[in-house]
Fold this sequence. Notes:
mainly alpha, 0% strand, 63% helix
Amino acid sequence: MRKLKIAVALPPALVSRMRQAVRRGDAASVSDYVSRAVEERSTRDNLGHMLDAMLAETGGPLTRAAQRTADEALGIKSRRRTLS
């Protein structure tokens, strides 16, 4: 896979935690750690957009109870937006 090099400014504490993860063997490098984190976030965002589109096609948003069940199934701890 082709890769591009970019510069990103991060808080020192976060960089420290990433380096600790590399030392523990949780990632091959800091670049690998960041790449995997961005991929995970991108996938989650895409799934969220797909869910919004499906809900729009099938009658609207989930109830609060259904949203909690879905969040638990997906391992999402909290949601920032409010639900109807």
